[in-house]
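Protocol step 4 of 6: structure prediction from sequence.
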Amino acid sequence: MKYWKLTLAALLAYLVFMVYLLPAAWVLHWAGLPANVKIGPVQGTIWRGSATIAQYQSLQFQQLRWHFDGWSLFKLAPKVTVTAGSIGERDQPYAQANVAYSFSGLKMQQALVRIPVSQLLPLLELPLPVAATGELMVEVQDFQQGKPWCSSLAGNASWLDARLQPPTGTWLELNSIVADLRCEQGSPVLITDGENSLGLAVTAAVENNRLTVNGSLKPDPGLPTEVHQAMQFVGRPDAQGRYTIKF
């Protein structure tokens, strides 16, 4: 009986050791990824490792890193800290988040994402051809997974050092545009209040795995003439001089 106990203990220790050293590259190959997501080359284990690049469509994050909190496993709520990019490199995307998973689903806290706006434009189906610079800064204090996407969301998004070039070719200095992040009817929603030089008041939401934007804009009278001329590409204004945005 004593030998059986020793054999069982040794087998359990071997299994724990194998799980602890489980290569992240093998798990990634076995689990698979969505067609528009690429990660690699991958090094390390599922508990602590890195990947040179994490790519979604044309958007690339350099040096993806993750680190599991070992004690969280005993609480049946695995927690991992994920970082991508370098916060000091302003011309490259950066992300950092604390992510946990429990019986209630995925939970994310104290997340920060910073992306150059020029790199986001190819991902958007805009109603008129424009160029833009600056940074999109997204801060999420708390996110709880729900159906279909979320049950709660608290955060904000800012377009910092915002510059926009409409079809007329003139670059516009917009300073900053700020929006709130919420969860409405199970979907993440971004809302601006129109308190900006473009009078941009929109609601952006994820519906049926697609980003939709609805709202309006009313450029400040003090903006250059080229801005108001560019509104012809948006459509006709209503009685209050607001232009409808929908895509």
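Step 5 (inspection) to follow. The chain has five helices and 13 strands.
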